Amino acid sequence: DEPRVPHPVHKKDPYYIAGWSREVPLPGANFPHAAHLELAAQRPSVEDELARLNPPIYVPKKRPDDPIGSVRGRHLNNLTAILHTCMLNQDWGRASRAWGLILRTEIAGFAPDIRQHGRWMIGAELLMRRDQTLEPVQISTGDQGSELDDSRPQPMAPVLSDEGFHLAREYYERMCLQYPHIPRARHSSVNAYAIYPALFNIWLYEIQHRSKRARQKLADSHEAAEYDEAGSARSNEFDQRRSLRLIRMRELSDTKPLVKRLDDLLLNPPYDTCPELLELRGMISLWLANM
Q: Which residues form a coiled coil (predicted)?
């Protein structure tokens, strides 16, 4: 009698035909459409083997042009920390000097790219606040009594100069010429496509900042004239309306060059489909309509 097989083998089973046990996992890669290739284990170098010993016999040195381990790289990191600390403390003079040292620092013969890590916006901020001054904030009449009793210092508001705004806009203009938009450039690269929205934003901020200062001075003079018994209330109100009209007219005249430059830019691709510029143009239109 033939011995009985408790589990008969199915001779058409792919595992049986291939001679592969089901307990062993199938090979990866493109099997079974291609032969399985066993990757040769990469043998570590002698330096790595000596460095893995305990204690290590050899410690590999970093390359001299490595920006993380080199002395110049650490110097650049320290200058960056000083720059941000001075900006947080509103010490714009020292921040400008630290920024100048960063631009002059070379690593492996190359200067740092100011477009990386958002450094290109720091340059415009330093130029804009180059001649910044602080003016005391006027306190309303109802709050003067409480402020006199309180020993807290009077709040100060920053005042930016027209020269600082002009330097910041000129800085962005130069960057747009130095880094033009290239169709095949990477999406994350900073070029004129990303710089133009910042240019128009700072231009618009300049116009609004100048008008805000003019309105604040007008309000302060009107509040001081209320306590002057020599002038009449009717003449003061007429002068205030006339001054407000002049401020709006100047604001409108300052906005016209911005609108013309923005409209000319939106006529050319790829800026005609830039969402930031299109949104900015729509907001400017609403702002001018409400003026």
A: none
